[in-house]
Automatic annotation (TrEMBL):
The keyword Magnesium applies. InterPro entries: B-phosphoglucomutase_hydrolase, Beta-PGM, HAD-like_sf, HAD-SF_hydro_IA, HAD_2, HAD_sf, PGP-like_dom2. Its cofactor is Mg(2+). It comes from Salisediminibacterium halotolerans. This is Beta-phosphoglucomutase. Transmembrane segments: none annotated. CDD domains: HAD_BPGM. Substrate binds at residues 10-12, 26, 45-50, 53, 77, 115-119, 146. The record marks S115, K146 as: Important for catalytic activity and assists the phosphoryl transfer reaction to Asp8 by balancing charge and orienting the reacting groups. One of its GO terms (molecular function) is magnesium ion binding. Belongs to the HAD-like hydrolase superfamily. CbbY/CbbZ/Gph/YieH family.
Length: 217
């Protein structure tokens, strides 16, 4: 890919771990609907939009709902989730993130958030990173969910960088596929046994430095 000209981060599971808040909100909804929803089931929802997640949840429970009922259930889940994330603090920023962001800033490399979450602005504000990124592309401005590359291509366009010179950090299979569909270098934050198709793998951002990244690329 040549030189690194921009870096795009997924939010959930990369910058902060909101997965537990999502899982608990979906689990409460499943309980209410009369079936159990496990952590294994929850893996299918990672990186997936809210309505698509709800459809997967209903499929797991073997439950059929009208479009209006689905909208109401999704709004209920989101309300519970927003209540949980509104209590977040900067202590919930994952290890290694602040140091790596500072290193990228110092090197003059533009950075972006590329997330399906419509709650991205709330989370960034609560953890004190609202102004840390050059642009934020989230579920409020895109129409197509990952693995469609729209979120990352929009990020590259806003940063004014060719996609082939962008590095993406992702923790979800759909996100890795979206990054590759965008023609970008994909770094998976997770296990190669679970996440396939990435160009590089790290267990956390604590392992990542700009120097290491340049070497592997």
């Amino acid at each position: 890919m040549g030189d690194i000209q921009g870096v795009i981060f997924d939010l959930d599971g990369v910058i902060v771990d909101t997965a537990v808040h999502h899982f608990q909100a979906w689990q409460r909804l499943a309980d209410q609907l009369g079936f159990s929803f496990t952590e294994k089931d929850n893996e299918r929802l990672k990186g997936v939009s809210r309505m698509d997640s709800l459809n997967i949840l209903l499929e797991i429970g073997g439950i059929s709902k009208t479009e209006q009922e689905k909208l109401e259930l999704a709004a209920q889940k989101n309300s519970e989730y927003v209540e949980a994330i509104s209590q977040m603090t900067e202590n919930e920023i994952l290890p290694g993130i602040k140091a790596f962001l500072a290193e990228l800033k110092e090197a003059g490399i533009p950075i972006a958030i590329g997330s399906a979450s419509k709650n991205t602005p709330i989370i960034l504000e609560r953890i004190g990173l609202k102004d840390a990124f050059d642009t934020v592309v989230d579920g409020n401005v895109i129409n197509k969910a990952k693995p469609d590359p729209e979120v990352f291509l929009t990020g590259a366009r806003r940063l004014n960088i060719d996609p082939s010179h962008c590095v993406v950090f992702e923790d979800a299979q759909s996100g890795i596929e979206a990054a590759k569909n965008a023609g970008m270098y994909a770094v998976a934050v997770g296990d190669a046994a679970v996440l396939s198709g990435a160009d590089d793998y790290v267990s956390s951002l604590e392992e990542v430095t700009l120097d290491r990244l340049k070497k592997v690329i």
